[in-house]
Amino acid sequence: MRWQYIGNIIGILLVFLGAVMVFPLGCSFIYNDGSLMAILLSMGATFCAGCGLFFISRRPDIEYINPREGIAIVALGWSAIGLFGALPFYFGDAVPCFTDAVFESVSGFTTTGSSVFSNIEGVSKSLLFWRSFIQWLGGMGIIVLSLAILPFLGVGGMQLFKAEVPSPVPDKLTPRLSESAKILWYVYALISVLEVLFLMGGGMGFYDALCHAFTTMPTGGFSTKNASVAHFDNAYFDFVIVLFMVLAGINFSLHYQLLRGRTLIFWRDSECRFFLMMCLGLTLVVTFDLYGTVYDSVSTAFRYASFQIVSIVTTTGYATADYELWPGLSQVIIFICMFVGASAGSTGGGMKCARLMVCMKYCYRELFTLIHPRSVAQVKINDAVVPDHVLKSIMGFLGIYLLLFVVCSVLLAAMGIDMLTSLGAVASCIGNIGPGFGTVGPVDNFAHIPMAGKWLLLWCMLLGRLEIYTVIILLVPEFWKK
Amino acid sequence: MRWQYIGNIIGILLVFLGAVMVFPLGCSFIYNDGSLMAILLSMGATFCAGCGLFFISRRPDIEYINPREGIAIVALGWSAIGLFGALPFYFGDAVPCFTDAVFESVSGFTTTGSSVFSNIEGVSKSLLFWRSFIQWLGGMGIIVLSLAILPFLGVGGMQLFKAEVPSPVPDKLTPRLSESAKILWYVYALISVLEVLFLMGGGMGFYDALCHAFTTMPTGGFSTKNASVAHFDNAYFDFVIVLFMVLAGINFSLHYQLLRGRTLIFWRDSECRFFLMMCLGLTLVVTFDLYGTVYDSVSTAFRYASFQIVSIVTTTGYATADYELWPGLSQVIIFICMFVGASAGSTGGGMKCARLMVCMKYCYRELFTLIHPRSVAQVKINDAVVPDHVLKSIMGFLGIYLLLFVVCSVLLAAMGIDMLTSLGAVASCIGNIGPGFGTVGPVDNFAHIPMAGKWLLLWCMLLGRLEIYTVIILLVPEFWKK
Ligand SMILES: [K+]
Ligand SMILES: [K+]
Predict the structure, then answer these.
(1) Residue A316 marked ligand-binding
(2) What is the ipTM of this complex?
């Protein structure tokens, strides 16, 4: 582990973070909302820390970063950015303590969207802008991480990260990291701009449209309003946001291929088809469940069902209704959706559709083997056989995901939180969703969770966002040896 | 699929079932409780149905039963026995409808212990005896199924069932099915007699002692009292029952080895050690959680914590306290324990400790592979390498278990049941535990579940009891072909 290289790259990330604080600074200047000094101070501190790290460390030859160092950079880099991104909230007095600031910041950069702000509308405009903007930055990071860095590390000998993206990606995009990143970010920015235009076309102000696009595309879910998207109570906005949440839940390399003219790619890709059919199917079931029990008209039931289902399945976490008041069926579906998540290679969290598909096919194969003991059944995704070591990685991933869910739920409950809230909060944070169940439902917030619980949950967010392995491996002593 | 052979064996099972109804008949005669005619009628019907099936079918040469027919016999046999075992409850007017009678009977034979009796003490003594006795019979069936039949089928080419018992069993016991069965039943009966003596020694009447031994040893959990074991409010009884629940949760072949003089076998066997340490560890955590919040003294907290934890971990389902009134930590632990279950080869249900140990080692191996990509790490249990196909079977089993839990919870919720109850009831029934959460907690019963829900849940009980594959495979069209 060559710490000087790791420090150098994290230093660069912090300098970059300090630099982009110029946007909330400009925002504060325009709206004259009193957060100017807080942001300037944060900017200075972040910039100095970044430069300091950069200069005391050595510039690595990027070719020689080994996989282990790659993992350390990803995990520690995300943590450092979460820590320094919290400064504006802390200096701007938006939160009562530093823990809360870090929680909000990590919740942003991991695109989770769980909030400790009890009165969002009481926070200054520039800080709310920062809160939305860091989700958008987090989304950029995730796309590149899951589509370029993790498979890249995989090629370097680590079969596991190759397994993370069993989608037709690495061979389709230009292989070099920086070019892939540029293409993906271009697509990401393009769709974000489209959403801003669509929202403004419906009459939403530029500031709100921008902030919501910044949190839709990374499936982040922070809103500038206390009541989340329900604040606008506008079917057109609901519809637009549902549309863009769905787009954000699709593998971004498919968007790229669509732009290249492969018009049927969403349907041809089996994961994407699974994801779209799941969104549609669950929406219809929940619509059926809500019609007559909660809403009097089918169209209203469909509107709220589609929004909430897409919001949870894509792991965005916006709300236009309190699903905790819905009937049992809808609640069970939403609880289960918290584990499913969106497509691999999208900005969504959770287990990812691809892994779940592989798991189901794996289970079916076991049944099939019981009937035909001598046959060698294979698991296929998009007509390609999933190699055995990738299967193992995926089943291992799902196992660790659930084991960690269990362990963290027990730990959170040990802090005096009730069962439903513990299970819901941990499921929500590991899945990078935002709202949970119990006292952290869609109309509640995370402010009342004890301090130790907040640190546990923000660790869960990092865990889920960085695909479990990257974070949990830091706890294995073997990792640090030699 | 040679139906005549299957019919013949099920016929023999029914004749046997009709024959053992002589015990409740005798009980009814002694107590003169008015159920004599109902039991006679049931006995006659079961006997006739059994003889009918036996004579219209052909006697198979047991050597030529193929694995597929073996599976069909296990699944259909258990179902048939559940159906005919319901007759005494139905004819004896202990239940309002046939569905309830079948629910109670299947709950008995699968050793689940979920009840639809709202007033247990209002049911005649002979019917309550039958209710306890069928759990004891179910336990006998399970021991032989999991330690002799499933591995036996496995040897015949089905790797899967071999995977079910990765314990040092088949090679240690005499290989022939009938002899293995005799030895195991002898051990089972011996421990049951011991429990009766211990309970009577503390002052419990013979009838109650017998009925409770009949439901402790198969980890069944039916009690003759409305308040379950809490009725006696006696620390000595609690202690004795905890001890025997633990014994019932241990692989019965280990008991046999203990009787043969291998005194340290409980500690040497890694699954048993895991199981015992888990019982102890969780009891201590829950004691700590309850002390000061629910109970004022450490000893009282320990008494109730140990009873409830052991009851759920061993999947017995007795209650001396309502854990739904306990703090969040204890509730989360109990909810998770519903999935864990006892040892493979015991009478307990759930996923089984051995499978969970394998899963954890599998996950750790995946992490290890990430650090040392070139190493070939192996999963070991009791110093023996678990073969790759067994690993796959186990991971597949856990995957199917959880997928079915999810599907059945959604289906139950679709019948208008709230989320907590749906999740709790399905977890409890698939795990063969008994009580769940919400409106089916330890002080509630299953009477209020709609009829379709009861059929779903009793299917879940069979599913869990027959190790998932045996039941779910009947739904795969491939299974019936050719
Ligand atoms: K989110
Ligand atoms: K039970």
Answers:
(1) yes
(2) 0.91
